[in-house]
Design goal:
Structural class of chain A: alpha+beta
Strand order of the largest sheet of chain A: 5-4-13-8-9
Distance between the termini of chain A: 23 Å
Oligomer: homodimer
Helix content of chain A: 10-25%
CATH topology of the largest domain in chain A: Sulfite Oxidase, Chain A, domain 2
Number of strands of chain A: 25
Strand content of chain A: 25-35%
Chain lengths: ~425, ~425
């Protein structure tokens, strides 16, 4: 396989000379004497050359006190479609086509900002909790970090992820079509602990969460969710949050649409009714064919996508390939993923990588022999609540063409006889 | 709590001016109108100031196409004791005192190198498999990545971790004493798949694994382990391995001492007997009081450590604190962790963070009220095989004082009345 985006770093000058020499031998890598007498001739030729990285000591320990990816991986980065109409209001996508397993490395976790990334001094950051509470209070980060904590592995998905597949399925990359999606280990204080500290009035039914960014991003959260499993998160994949993910504090609502997990969280206000903020009236609602709109569509639906092979890759050889992808649901665990390689006529059950966690990305894999002809690859996820990922036509029949958010239909990739892969509906 | 190492980044000039102004108000952070009328006076004063990061848009999306930690976290890095006698042969430790949950961010995963970090071009890297096999073969990275893959979350620990606690318990940091320890999601090909490709002779009982670094680091692996759960790993926490962790390919042996998970793996040779390499004769053996040595001590024993509070922290206030730590065992899952705050007279069972995974770090937590007096904090792990972490005296009684590797005794931190924390045996 080859990644189309891959333009590997230039080797250093000494290595470049070595590359030219090595090419004459048909490739390199092994020390003399490495091979059994029965090895093929080309393999023995390869064994004659000792690569430069074996000839001399390498970079010292603590070369990088905080590590970075290899130079050869420099094209594995967040990307987006380009400039957005409003400064600061934009997103970037996770390179799903290059990732393995379920954990998204934090440096590649997608971004969605409404007014850019505020750089907040944690010593000066405060969280105010007020409204229908007995003891309104301002918390410092030290106050919060000192409280009882939990860690959970959960996916985070923007409700606009794959929104363009609805009317204009044009993405030529799974990073661009599905990359507003990541999965991390989140650590923080259960919101229920903080609410117990302040004392919730019995009539409080909603919590307004407000960010400290200059968009003052605000959403209303039902009290049931706040008490059930909402977290005030300060750490992600072991370390403190990064600035672009809400440093030093964010709300995290497992299974809910990403924008509600308010970043740079500075305020929680308890009230009787939803606060009808801009982000839940003008935005993040789903227009329906009859002119009405679905509002407060919090839960992310069951969904999956094949990340290999995807339009980002080219199949160079026939024969064995492992189809791999990700499945997830805001309703709970993934129960099953079926994969079709013939445009939906036949389906085979994929293998799910354990542990299959509640509202986390789940990696699925299926062995496949590519015969070199055209093929259409699709995955269909089913969650433990019994929800089945719909076909695009089924989704459109239910919700029309006017929505942008909460598109969760089955994605089809078309493999050409040349090994190139395209969006089957583009 | 305060991290002694923390020397926060200097704020930018505009922010510095703001800091001085803010200090006059007794702290800052909230927008006007943020507070209920019942809020305390200092809170209302704080609310008068809108912090600079709320006043103007922040950094743009894709500010960093590959993310990095916040500047304020710049002291959360790998560290070590300083120069080692041989160039390239050294280690660095994970800052356990600053981490949460169980996933170690890859940039902070500990290092142990025997001849520095080779920078390997993955297109030129090869893995040779030969010896007692039917079809000796050289694999490219493309060959390997194409094979069926699995992902597993496992700890990795250097067998020398905490070795200095044996004779000279002097570490003033849990990073230095216990930081040759990390936990990641590893993805790669089961070694059994590759062995099936080449056809193992019935008499093959050991596999020699060799690295492509200039130390040509080599260890012998029993065939049973190779077939059971050994992995040829190319990805760590979702992305390709970093250079310091074996890019582009390493062996990974769940539960075994770290040095056997050969990095930069270039060769596997199958034989009848262990290969008696330098690293399993002169090194990585455990001297006993009678002059003999334990050899091939592969499995890492059951172990735990309290990471908060640890000598890296200072307790500023009496009252509630959450004791947190990590437990792990090469024998399987952690069954229970007990914590003592009174030097071992009483023990309470800590809460284990789910999911508790096989041979992975397990986060434990226990609520504690510090009365402001001296205290001695200890944790004791028990694994599913029934192994109980020993006291230092018990370990010494069994193995004497001549060993360096496989020290797994209970660690005691002494809290002083001044809130400072020390190694209780130092």
């Amino acid at each position: 396989m080859t990644n189309k985006n891959e333009k590997n770093a230039q080797p250093q000058s000494g290595r470049r000379r070595f590359l030219r020499q090595g090419a004459g031998l048909g490739g390199v890598a092994l020390g003399a004497g490495a091979l059994a007498a029965g090895a093929p001739a080309t393999a023995r030729a390869e064994a004659l050359t000792v690569p430069p990285w074996t000839r001399a000591p390498g970079e010292p320990v603590l070369w990088r006190a905080y590590g970075r990816p290899a130079e050869f991986e420099k094209n594995v980065i967040r990307r987006n479609r380009g400039a957005a109409p409003m400064p600061g209001a934009n997103s970037s996508m996770t390179p799903l086509q290059d990732l393995r397993g379920i954990i998204t490395p934090t440096g590649l976790v997608f971004e969605r900002h409404h007014a850019g990334i505020p750089l907040i001094d944690p010593a000066l950051h405060r969280l105010a909790v007020h409204g229908l509470v007995d003891r309104p209070r301002i918390f410092t980060m030290d106050d919060l970090v000192r409280l009882p904590s939990v860690s959970r592995i959960h996916f985070l998905e923007c409700s606009g992820n794959t929104g363009r597949e609805w009317r204009a399925p044009s993405a030529t990359s799974v990073q661009i079509s599905h990359g507003l999606l990541s999965c991390c280990e989140w650590t923080g204080v259960p919101l229920s602990v903080v609410l117990e500290e302040v004392g919730v009035h019995p009539e409080a039914a909603w919590v307004l969460a407000e960010g400290a960014d200059s968009a003052a991003m605000t959403r209303s959260v039902p009290m049931a969710k706040a008490l059930e499993d909402a977290l005030l998160v300060y750490a992600q994949n072991g370390e403190m949050l990064r600035p672009e993910h809400g440093y030093p504090l964010r709300l995290f609502l497992p299974g809910f649409e990403g924008n509600m997990s308010i970043k740079w969280l500075r305020r929680l206000k308890l009230g009787r009714e939803p606060f009808m903020t801009r982000e839940e009236t003008a935005k993040y609602t789903d227009s329906l064919p009859d002119g009405s709109a679905r509002q407060f569509t919090f839960l992310m639906d069951v969904k999956s996508v094949i990340t290999f092979p995807a339009p980002d890759h080219v199949l160079r050889d026939r024969g064995f390939h492992e189809i791999a992808g990700l499945a997830w649901s805001g309703h709970g665990r993934i129960r099953r993923v079926d994969v079709s390689v013939d445009g939906g006529r036949g389906w085979r059950e994929a293998k799910l990588q354990a542990p299959v966690l509640d509202r986390a990305l789940t990696r699925f894999r299926l062995s496949w022999r590519w015969d070199g002809g055209p093929a259409v690859l699709q995955s269909r996820a089913i969650d433990e609540a019994g929800n089945v990922q719909p076909l695009p036509d089924q989704l459109v029949a239910a919700r029309g063409y006017e929505s942008t958010y909460h598109y969760n239909a089955i994605q089809a990739w078309r493999v050409g006889a040349d090994g190139r892969i395209a969006n089957a509906r583009a």
